[in-house]
Amino acid sequence: MYHHIKKLMYTVHVNQPDPRFGNMLLEQFGGANGELAAAMQYSIQGINCEDTVCKDLLMDIGTEELSHLEIIGTLARMHLKPMKKSADAAEHDPLVAIAGGGGVTLCNSMGAAWTADYLKITGELDVDLRSNIAAEARAKIVYERLINFCDDSGTKDALQFLMTREITHLRAFMQALEMVSKNPLSIGLIPPTPRIVDQWYNDSTGEGDNGEIDADGPWKSKKGITVVESPALQEFQVLKATPKGSETTVVSTEKTQK
Amino acid sequence: MYHHIKKLMYTVHVNQPDPRFGNMLLEQFGGANGELAAAMQYSIQGINCEDTVCKDLLMDIGTEELSHLEIIGTLARMHLKPMKKSADAAEHDPLVAIAGGGGVTLCNSMGAAWTADYLKITGELDVDLRSNIAAEARAKIVYERLINFCDDSGTKDALQFLMTREITHLRAFMQALEMVSKNPLSIGLIPPTPRIVDQWYNDSTGEGDNGEIDADGPWKSKKGITVVESPALQEFQVLKATPKGSETTVVSTEKTQK
Amino acid sequence: MYHHIKKLMYTVHVNQPDPRFGNMLLEQFGGANGELAAAMQYSIQGINCEDTVCKDLLMDIGTEELSHLEIIGTLARMHLKPMKKSADAAEHDPLVAIAGGGGVTLCNSMGAAWTADYLKITGELDVDLRSNIAAEARAKIVYERLINFCDDSGTKDALQFLMTREITHLRAFMQALEMVSKNPLSIGLIPPTPRIVDQWYNDSTGEGDNGEIDADGPWKSKKGITVVESPALQEFQVLKATPKGSETTVVSTEKTQK
Amino acid sequence: MYHHIKKLMYTVHVNQPDPRFGNMLLEQFGGANGELAAAMQYSIQGINCEDTVCKDLLMDIGTEELSHLEIIGTLARMHLKPMKKSADAAEHDPLVAIAGGGGVTLCNSMGAAWTADYLKITGELDVDLRSNIAAEARAKIVYERLINFCDDSGTKDALQFLMTREITHLRAFMQALEMVSKNPLSIGLIPPTPRIVDQWYNDSTGEGDNGEIDADGPWKSKKGITVVESPALQEFQVLKATPKGSETTVVSTEKTQK
Amino acid sequence: MYHHIKKLMYTVHVNQPDPRFGNMLLEQFGGANGELAAAMQYSIQGINCEDTVCKDLLMDIGTEELSHLEIIGTLARMHLKPMKKSADAAEHDPLVAIAGGGGVTLCNSMGAAWTADYLKITGELDVDLRSNIAAEARAKIVYERLINFCDDSGTKDALQFLMTREITHLRAFMQALEMVSKNPLSIGLIPPTPRIVDQWYNDSTGEGDNGEIDADGPWKSKKGITVVESPALQEFQVLKATPKGSETTVVSTEKTQK
Amino acid sequence: MYHHIKKLMYTVHVNQPDPRFGNMLLEQFGGANGELAAAMQYSIQGINCEDTVCKDLLMDIGTEELSHLEIIGTLARMHLKPMKKSADAAEHDPLVAIAGGGGVTLCNSMGAAWTADYLKITGELDVDLRSNIAAEARAKIVYERLINFCDDSGTKDALQFLMTREITHLRAFMQALEMVSKNPLSIGLIPPTPRIVDQWYNDSTGEGDNGEIDADGPWKSKKGITVVESPALQEFQVLKATPKGSETTVVSTEKTQK
Could you tell me which chain F residue has the CA closest to the CA of D87? Predict the structure, then answer.
């Protein structure tokens, strides 16, 4: 059950409304990495969650994101209001001006309606936590970019507050993942097939015109890794399905790291 | 530049086509966590990437996912083919039967068209790698569920191969993240506001009918954390915007962990 | 600012989970007339609203709808849970089974992701209230249909509670509209063109095979109405743009009601 | 069956094509509250409708909206045509310029493709009429805003004609609703639960920074209403499901209006 | 300007309503290749068209497709009506049953809302005609599949009528294309680069497990064609941008057909 | 199976990045007629295809389009990069600037996410080839328009290369259609109804204000065609369903061409 208090979680002051920037702010209101996406992703994961400790975490943060949605919506509304009257302002977002009368709607900065396709909800707790860590990292960087494009100090303060909270959440989700998953490489119950999991398929090779190279990261060079060079070009013949029970054997030009 | 070799990366054998299962398989062909989503997310991040080592990683995996898309498409095609003729089969997915003639299309198991809204691409390398780790974890668990619903041994073998590779990729993205980001809590360049980042807002409280509790995870109890109890109910008055330069002070019923 | 209490607004009891019905319930969770649509439509209108009394109304109801979203989500989760294990159950919604692990997501009963395209938000208070009256009427009838398809008494009780509240909201929005709009036919500030507003264009004529007729409702027969018979067939010549300032004259086969 | 006459329902004159304004006009061509949405909503309700008088009404208006779609499309086409040649013009809508060659497409002013998600069709006549009343009110206000942003007198005349007709339709739908529904609070057949329908949940309380207050509208103060103060904070315990047959009792701090 | 006559263009008789088949029929009502898509594609191309003869063609067919939309909608409505009452029927399309009360909506057979993304409108007459030829061919084959899945003779008759008309339209669009485009390979005004247009890139090679081969169609073997074998593997070095004015030279393992 | 070579199929040089033009380029990256749409349409048709010669064709071109996607993405990335830093640049596409950090995403020039709704895949080879011919014609004209709006000679060269290849593909698909379909009017197996296929319904009549006329194309005047004048206005009575087996007779004001 929810209760709403009319005071915002962070009081916003806008000195000079800027419709162009109000339009950019919509990215965090109705955009793919915005506050509604965060609120819905965590709260619905919370409804599905059967671990009481993490369920509480998901509901705590999910609820806080609703309060963030209200802050960013109020802020965007202040910046977008001049669109109702000014044709110059209206050009930055005719949808807000003509269909919305200068009010906010659940769209991103290019007028795309918010969609639940943005959400990542799998019903598997440790997997969902990984999706949440990534979501918080994305939200953080988007707030940083908004701050960099912002001229109004009051708006900047609010964005700094919101950006800070994403780091708090990022840390919490990382702690929760550590708590529920002992081995970060183990997902679900079915183990990967032993030899195949240690093969690296070098599927992109050669050199490009702008310095692109066939590099040598740890994923290729760590001990135990078998590099399969350009598997497509070898027609991958040795990986054909083998009789059930027997082992898959890889015989081609691959090289196992030692 | 791409080249295509007609042999599949993993040869598929289907003993008994099962349109109901073919329909489920579409989740990994045109679904939110499927192979096209993976191929596009990594390849496009690769186009944007300016770190040559990680760019190679992104193109290696992005290309491998295209080969996976081909495997899962071929497999689904084999299972869905009877839909063209049988009305009973057609009921499982009238879109495939009527509009597709028993062939695959870029839809998920409920007929929703694939959309780039599924993708997470930010143009910030370490953030993108977190999104990729989460994406691989999701793909792994979806393959596991498909295996659990699958009766055909040839199909199961192919799914096991594909599932295994997701773990290979998960590991590689984790290694890459370690390589490019020294501090997993540091995203972008603007630091979070010191005191606010250490506050925990206990926004969801009380007890529920099915054992829901106000739990005490490490995010609340770790040293240095200040718990703000039910901030909405205190009307959050102390967090009002303060004059620029001064510090935000929190004076309410909060308790700092020691 | 929001606060969440773990107890549901209406405690739900499910005697016998029914995945088929759980799938139908999603219509009110992530569907076009469901609880998220209601919560978002009213809360965002509330952010835009500059009338303090109606702003309070919008936030009261918007918040209650969030609590309803939680009820319907919890209920659907209980009914959908068997999908994780049973292939028969999974057929009712492979998306929930395979991608969601038997948990809820923001989709409707056919797996379409929730979209803000469902919302009607114009930034004009009296217009928004009309959209809300219609939205509550739609939600009421959808709950009634769900009750009619429901076999489980605990589920029925919860749906009856939710359905009842829609009528409470419907009445409140009607009272608010009466309060802010003295003339229900007056929208905005620009008046309609006098004679044209009283014309009825009889654009659909003749008789159909199933009893369709060219009927005579009050919109045609009320005093003052001028019926223009089959305007397309008269080529509408008399309605051509006339010199600015002069009056549009209609001379054709029309008949003014007396 | 439809017939098309090449003369427009309202002859349009454009003195000075203005691509910026042509782009705004698309809101009424392919936008959420535009003419296609109106034409489709009413015509499809008409196909479903089993009341012959209202079926005729729905087909009359649905057909007129098709003629409006043609007017607004022709008008937008005239304003957008320069986009084909001028890069400056093209910036207002690169989609129209590059993909459409300066012609109209079924998109809104921000390039979002028209979707049937905009429609409200329930198959329940009185509910559909409420949705139509709201739709006409929205269309009216959008036309008013377009007129306010318009500099071209010929375009303004056409918009005034179209805006006027929405009021004609609004009135007709209101008359039809009165005709089919004796009690505006009665939707469907299942009655609401008596005491619960008269409760007001005061879910949003306190004061905000911009004059937001916990106001006292008729929905709270009318005789017979029971106000439940901040139900979430009282944990709503008294509304728990009660044994079938018994009455729900509310005992907390609520106050019934007299 | 449009006029509607209540008689259908083809009278429909349904002996035995079949909700399962009604659901399939939606593919031609609100589906990607359905009648609304056809009506909108041609009518909007007609609005954009500046060739008076083809404009008439586009409006003739666009209007006929509206009459087809009405037929298929009426037919689907008859088959779907039992969904309102029967839970067994409702399972075939819970969206129609729960949200639509057994009435039609603009969705396809899997409940996906119709979208203007289905349309192909470029503002270039000869290109649009090619899109229309393809659209008619798709509509024809979809009707054929519906007929093959249909048990009801009255329904079959109507589908046969509709299918027949698509062939009429296909022929007309082909005649129109012949009329406006003398050279079917010439699109627009900028000519293709001479030598490059005659190269064939053999980008997919080898043999597959199910008889896939590197075949030899006329596109490779016709006189004047230069086959570039596996260009990616040769790293396409010779196609690098050359100094403006000079000619691109291809020197690798290619072979020009004689 | 795919392999990726780091060298682009056409080396791109950008002298002066132009974010406004970079935004337009996205039309061919993530737009409706862009390279991903082409790559996916052909490759998935290829997976479904059972004719080995055409399957090879579809995979050859599908793979080449992937290489084109890479070229256009690299080109757009170069033009969009300044968006990360410059507010003026960012206004052309705030989504790319704020959410994408100046990198490309799978959106069109108006920020709409790519969707598989753009694709035309029917599982019927000759129908798919018609869709592909139309798709290539659309891609050609879009490239031509981009070239016309482009100031940078290096970018122009790349676009000319890509545009040229579309003509190569157009020709190949036409050759393939000729190969598989002897009669261009014959689609599928069920023949059209003889007399009805030769009727022309003159559904759009009269004269418009801008020279629109009821024209006389070959589709009306060719020998054997029966023109049915304004069928709706004659209420189409003669086309009513007739007893099975009997012939449909048309007796009205129609005129058969001789």
Answer: F149
pLDDT of residue A243: 40
| Buried-state track C92-124, b at ≥16 Cβ within 10 A, e below 16 | bbbbbbbbbbbbbbbbbbbbbbbbbbbbbbbbb
**Chain F: residue nearest E228 by CA?**
F60
Calculate ∠ Cα D56-D57-D59, nearest 5°: 65
Residues A255, B20: Cα–Cα separation, whole Å: 41
Written as six digits, the tokens of B253 are 């019923």
CA–CA min distance E113, chain C (Å): 8
Residue B209: list chain D partners with CB under 8 A.
Answer: 240
pLDDT in tens, A101-136: 999 999 999 999 999 999 999 999 999 999 999 999
* Interface pTM, i.e. ipTM: 0.92
Please report the pLDDT score of residue F225 as a whole number: 95
User: Which residues on F lie below 8 Å from A236 (Cβ)?
Assistant: 1
- Residue bearing tokens 């049988």: B86
Quote the radius of gyration of chain C (alpha carbons, Å). Answer: 24
CB D120 within 8 A of CB D32: no
Would you call E32 an interface residue with chain B, using a CB distance cutoff of 8 Å? yes
**DSSP-based helix, strand, coil % in chain E, nearest 5:** 55, 5, 40
- Smallest Cβ–Cβ distance between B235 and the set D206, D233, D235 belongs to D206
Chain B residues 150-169 within an 8 A CB cutoff of chain F = none
Give CA–CA dist F55/C125, Å, rounded.
Answer: 58
3-class secondary-structure state, position D84: helix
Task: State which amino acid sits at residue A167.
Answer: I
Q: Which residues of F touch B120 (CB under 8 A)?
A: none
Kindly list the partner chains of chain B, i.e. chains with 3 or more CB atom pairs below 8 Å: A, C, D, E, F
DSSP per-residue string spanning A45-108: HHHH---HHHHHHHHHHHHHHHHHHHHHHHHHHHHHGGGGT-HHHHTT-HIIIIITTT---SB-
Please give the angle made by the CA atoms of B236, B242 and B244, to the nearest 5 degrees: 150
Average pLDDT, chain C: 91
Does F196 reach chain C within 8 Å, measured CB to CB? no
User: Which two tokens mark E121?
Assistant: 């409108």
pTM here?
0.94
List the single residue in E3, E84, E104 with the smallest CB-CB distance to D44: E104
Cα distances from C253 to residues C205, C218, C250, F187, in angstroms, run 15, 20, 9, 48
The label of the residue with tokens 């135990």 reads A224
Q: Which pLDDT score, from 0 to 100, does residue F248 have?
A: 38
pLDDT of residue D236: 55
User: Does F113 contact chain C (CB < 8 Å)?
Assistant: no
Does A23 sit within 8 Å of F97, measured CB to CB? no
Pairing of strands A255-256, F226-229: unpaired
Q: Which one of B18, B24, B26, B150 would you mutate to disrupt binding with C, by most C Cβ within 10 Å of its Cβ?
A: B24
Whether F212 contacts chain C with CB within 8 A: no
Residue E139 — φ and ψ, nearest 5°? -60, -40
Q: Are B27 and C98 in contact (CB under 8 A)?
A: yes
Collect all residues of chain D within an 8 Å Cβ-Cβ radius of residue E113.
115-117
Three-class SS of residue E6?
A: coil
Q: What is the 3-state secondary structure (H, E, C) of D166-202?
A: HHHHHHHHHHHHHHHCCCCCCCCCCCCCHHHHCEEEE
Q: Which residues are CB-neighbours of D173 under 8 A, at least 6 positions away?
A: D57, D61, D129, D132, D133, D136
Closest CA to C123 of D171, A68, D138, A85: D138
Q: Which of D209, D233, D235 sits opposite B233 (nearest CB)?
A: D233
